[in-house]
Amino acid sequence: MKILIIGTGGIGAYYGYFLQQSGNDVVFTARGEHLAALEENGLTLIHEGTTYCTPVKAHTHGYLAQHFEANEFDLIILTLKAHSTDAFVKEMGSWLTSHPTFVLSLQNGVDNENILADLLGSQYVLGGLAVRIGSHVLSPGVIQSTGKAEIIIGAWPNDAEHSSPVPSIVSQFSDVLAQASIPNQVSTDIRRELWRKLMINNGVNPLSAITGLDTFALTNHERLGSLVYGMMQETVNAAKADGVELTQQDLSEMFELIKTFKPIKTSMLMDKEHGRKMELDSIIGVVLQRSETLGIQAPYNTMAFALLTSET
């Protein structure tokens, strides 16, 4: 496949590296010092103690718009921070719509696919999530990652809401991931899977940014662990606003998953430490907004949002 990775951060670089190594034609986008390092030295990936290096094709969005048509790519994978999705659509929307192709969001939150579907139509949008992975930019051109690094993908918002057959691109990309030795699952209800992941993100990201603790220390703390669980419970409650019915079993499974996962610094904690904008709206704000729609309270999320916004 010919694949475009929009945003070569920890997630985009990790999956892009292995997709390229398995024979796919992969193009990356980046900017600033990170782009310069990719162009000069290639991509370096450090995963579970092993270092991998490869030359890559990396460009700015401007270069991309001038030298490529969107449908030259079989699949475009969006791995930007969720708060950058609107800006990306404003910048590259006409480029995407002039020659549409399939776009997969591998981002935090549950609203990125809605933004893309408003632009392209849901027939061109795939939802996805990266699970059991911690990955971040260690230095320009260098990525450090840990975990099994699985991908779950599916047609947006789910198979049942597609009047026509689900795009074959879903099964095709699943096969491509398998050939690249990337564990993956195809979901018939990807919107539900995104809300399940949001449970974890909402549970640990804000509290890790507040406390400075990694996921293992946070979830296994005598008192803080119960706060994580409370944040996750409020996510379960809020999901009903999108017609997603999560259960106590979902909550227990997701809490046990993050509680037993290798200790990692959350993306929100990393962003805070490096003075970058945190994904507050896509992780906490979405729970508060959906809770307001339903007329219910979300006191844990309200507290976390207040504490984190008071620092910015």
UniProtKB/TrEMBL annotation:
Cite the GO molecular-function annotations of the record: 2-dehydropantoate 2-reductase activity
Source organism's superkingdom? Bacteria
Q: Which InterPro entries match?
A: 6-PGluconate_DH-like_C_sf, 6PGD_dom2, ApbA, KPA_reductase, KPR-Related, KPR_N, NAD(P)-bd_dom_sf
Q: What is its EC number?
A: 1.1.1.169
From the UniProt record, list the reaction(s) this protein catalyses.
(R)-pantoate + NADP(+) = 2-dehydropantoate + NADPH + H(+)
Ketopantoate reductase N-terminal domain residues are: 3-157
- Keywords from the named record: NADP, Oxidoreductase, Pantothenate biosynthesis
- Enzyme class at the top of the EC tree: oxidoreductase
Q: Which Pfam families match?
A: ApbA, ApbA_C
- Domain (Ketopantoate reductase C-terminal): residue spans on this chain: 189-308
Pathway as given in its UniProt record: Cofactor biosynthesis; (R)-pantothenate biosynthesis; (R)-pantoate from 3-methyl-2-oxobutanoate: step 2/2
Similarity section: Belongs to the ketopantoate reductase family.
NCBIfam families xrefs: apbA_panE
Relate the protein's function as given in its record. Answer: Catalyzes the NADPH-dependent reduction of ketopantoate into pantoic acid.
Name of this chain's protein: 2-dehydropantoate 2-reductase
